[in-house]
Amino acid sequence: MQAAIKRMGNSAAILLPKPVLAHLHVAAGDVLQMDLQEGRVVLSPAQLRPREGWAEAAESLAAAGDGQTEWPELDNAGDEDWVW
């Protein structure tokens, strides 16, 4: 598949065909991460909320665990005094 580079003001743009957007599971208006790897431009969906799902994962780990902390010397004593 080929795409032409078009002028957009002082920059240039490439229109991504619909099959490419579908393969990446993105749509117009989404944000892509762009990296250069070995002379290639690599596009991937940007992770805008890197901690999304952490709370649910922590809950499932806690439910599956034995209730013991991994690092008992680092307990949560005094956490209520912290000001966020």
The residue ranges in which pLDDT falls below 50 over 5 or more consecutive positions are none
Spatial extent as radius of gyration: 22 Å
Fill in the CATH topology of the domain at 5-45: Pemi-like Protein 1, Chain: D
Strand content: 15-25%
Largest sheet: 2 strands, antiparallel
Q: Which outline best applies?
A: elongated
Number of strands: 4
Distance between the termini: 51 Å
Put simply, the count of helices is 2
Summarize the structure.
The chain is α+β, with helices and mostly antiparallel strands and 84 residues long. It has helices at 18-24, 54-64; strands spanning 5-8, 11-14, 32-37, 40-45. The chain is elongated.
